[in-house]
Automatic annotation (TrEMBL), chain A:
Cellular component GO terms held in the UniProt record: plasma membrane
Major place of residence: membrane
Protein name, per record: Molybdenum transport system permease
Membrane topology value: Multi-pass membrane protein
Family note: Belongs to the binding-protein-dependent transport system permease family. CysTW subfamily.
Transmembrane helix keyword on record: yes
Membrane-traversing stretches: 12-36, 56-82, 94-116, 128-155, 184-205, 240-258
Subcellular location: Cell membrane
Protein purpose: Part of the binding-protein-dependent transport system for molybdenum; probably responsible for the translocation of the substrate across the membrane.
Keyword entries, A-Z: Cell membrane, Membrane, Molybdenum, Transmembrane, Transmembrane helix, Transport
Molecular-function annotations in GO: molybdate ion transmembrane transporter activity
Domain ABC transmembrane type-1 span(s) in chain numbering: 56-258
TrEMBL record, chain B:
UniProt name for this protein: Molybdenum ABC transporter ATP-binding protein
Organism taxonomic ancestry: Bacteria, Bacillati, Actinomycetota, Actinomycetes, Micrococcales
Domain of life assignment: Bacteria
Organism: Subtercola boreus
GO-annotated molecular function: ATP binding; ATP hydrolysis activity; transmembrane transporter activity
One of the record's GO cellular component terms: ATP-binding cassette (ABC) transporter complex
UniProtKB/TrEMBL annotation, chain C:
Top-level taxon: Bacteria
Family: Belongs to the bacterial solute-binding protein ModA family.
PANTHER family given in the database record: MOLYBDATE-BINDING PERIPLASMIC PROTEIN, SULFATE-BINDING PROTEIN
Binding site for molybdate: 49, 77, 180, 198
Keywords assigned: Metal-binding, Molybdenum, Signal
Protein name, UniProt field: Molybdate ABC transporter substrate-binding protein
Species per Swiss-Prot/TrEMBL record: Subtercola boreus
Keyword Signal assigned: yes
GO biological process, one term: molybdate ion transport
GO MF term set: metal ion binding; molybdate ion binding
InterPro entries: ModA, ModA/WtpA
One Pfam short name: SBP_bac_11
Amino acid sequence: MPRIASSGPGSVPRWILAIAIIGALFVVLPLVAMVVRVNWGEFIPLITSESSVDALLLSLRTSAAATALCIVFGVPMALVLARTSFPGQRIARSLVLLPLVLPPVVGGIALLYTFGRQGLLREPMNVLGIQIAFSTTAVVLAQTFVALPFLVLSLEGALRTVGTRYEAVAATLGAGPTTVLRRITLPLVLPALVSGSVLSFARALGEFGATLTFAGSLQGVTRTLPLEIYLQRETDPDTAVALALVLVAVAVLVVGLAHQAGSRTRAGGGLL
Amino acid sequence: MRFTFSATVARRGFDVSFELAEGETLAVLGPNGAGKSTLLNLIAGLITPDAGEAVLGGETLFRGRVFTPPHARGISLLAQEALLFPHLSVLNNVAFGPTSAGVKRADAFRTARRWLAEVDASEFETRKPAQLSGGQAQRIAVARALAAEPRLLLLDEPMAALDVAVAPAIRRMLRRVLESRTAIIVTHDVLDAFTLADRVIVIDRGHVVEDGPTRSVLEQPRDPFTAGIAGLNVLAGIRTARGMRTAAGDELQLPGPTGVTPGTACTAAIRPSGIRVSGERPAGTANSLRRVVRDLEPRGDLVRLGTDDLAADVAPALVADLDVTPGSSVWFSFEPSDATLYATAR
Amino acid sequence: MAAAVLTGEAACAGTSAGTAAGTSTPGASASAAATTAPAGTITVFAAASLKATFTKLGTDFEAANPGTTVTFSFAGSSDLVTQITGGAPADVFASADTKNMTKLTTTTLVSGTPVNFATNILEIATPPGNPAGVKTFQDLANPDITTVICAPAVPCGAATVTIETATGVTIPAVSEESAVTDVLGKVSSGEADAGLVYATDVQGAGNTVEGVPFAESSTAVNTYPIAALSATKSPELAQAFIDYVTGTDGQAVLTTAGFGKP
């Protein structure tokens, strides 16, 4: 009996391989189907139309801003979850991770009831003269809301894996908590921080439901690429498919770049 | 830099007190789980005691609600593993202490290079920790700990994870750098204690069971654990005219220092290699004790027979001849010249 | 999505026709009064905006014609056209605009000529109590009034553009939504002061929004055509349903829902 892929150490049974291939096809085939469906003759004009470019640029801009917010808030959140213990911590973790399982539309409604004109924070926001609804800020908020758990989750896991031993050593060498964070903890979890940020960016890029519900849809202001695709689908499937392909390409590009960056960091760090 | 320490941690059954004079190196011995790591973590400030007080050079480390955080204690901890920061070069690792203290980069690097030279590791300056062997990493960890100019240096079994081949060199280096330094070294190895420590305390189940100058504690142990790591058998009993009577009622003939008054508590230490094992009671031997063998453990080309209080190293052939298995009863005999007797009270 | 089920009942159409005759509702439409609908099952593909009215019409039709079953599939008109073109088993198609119906008539998928059965015009929807005090279409040009409209790519947005062009009023909309429901959502939640939706949407939203009709809406009247499809296996039943929709009873239901006369 010739054994091809399933011999040698670390091999898997053939039937596992078969199921894995079916699973991979399930993911890849729809992408192929989409590529096949693209009207290549018109592809460039379709994706360079004013509304398409506006949507792409808006998506990139808001996703970058959302990722930055995720880092600013997510790193401290992950640190608190991984390095401290307080009553109700398990509940706090579940709540923080809730947007992962929440339907995005529900997230949008929740944001509306918080930051909307009739929302929970209407008084303080009126006082400060802040109007978030229908603004690009609303898009960023919606994206941050759904993307934050990805960063917190991957970073908290990495913090737990790295453990506190290096931090303890650093402290006994005279480094204060902030120095330990800056020079030891963060460099050690940098690969996870990078991959978590990428996941957050990708999630923000694909955000649709919460944005639609909370931010509205206006070219150049709140109509991100997914919203543009959704709108074009109604009348111009060619544009919708072309833009969908652009979205996939951008996502693949970002994930690929970050993966490279991550593996470089890993190689240099010699850890994880 | 005088150091006084006294702390309890109820949850771990830990209650230890001791003092350390300026420039003194203290070895802490004890079985696994005795509380040695708890002790070091308490001193370093990585855990908090339930009660107690520790003062280093006049500064309180903890007392009541006062708690100095680890980074402000001036105490470096060298662990079993080097734990060099994997993302920093060797030089940056060693310079970590000085830079954390606010020393300028150039000065910190100068200090780091001096300590790298001190531990014979200058050549590794630009390497990353992943490119070092265990012994090299541990040398650099020593340099890093010392470059932080600690007022007290803690060493947690610094040679336990190293190859037997490199341990002697590290031990020599430690001996040099620990000279006249206030330090506490936790170890399993009696050789570490002999070479590095001025004084020894033995901890068992969270309590200090022995405390004294290294030689006195290790050559005249009172505690069975201490005797074990010192490679000795100890028997406790009462001084008699001819020797001693053990708690079990055995009469032993032993030479003894004139200082031990008959009727007082005394301890006899016997080297395992001085004990002969036989199936029948041997004639003409001064001391013979019948014991039940609890375990057999290969030791080089000999086998160590363990009982509740005595151990003997015998040839494998003898084990086979006598058909010794756990539970067998055999005779342990030794001449007075293979034992030393001393007062239990120090 | 196409939940069409053709049951075997169609085969019994001839035998059950006689019993159905006696129970025909006296108020049945003029054209359908003489001939009773044959028993059987038909599937009607109808625009999403017809969901409430057609569900009621279907029930009424079944009550008036025992032995008949009408099942529906509601979706956007363009989606339905895609499904029908793709071979979905539908007997009747009711579109929210003539444009999508035309897509089918040009491909001979429709049997006979489509009949217009209703019209719909735009209306301003405001949150309950109309906090911004919107009274006219011109008010929507005020940038202080937060207005949400449909994107030009979707029918209600196209109608909005038509009215804007006809009146010369430009609405500085804060959002151009892809669906009427999204416009309504923003208005009913109070995020927007006003939204432009169909009169039937205002009606259907109950008291979550308030309607402000405006005369300029007549410049963009949306016509709903209905037609039997060539693929139907029950052309008589399909026609009977179309007759019911265009008849007195059907029109009464549509009018109540806010639709205009064709």
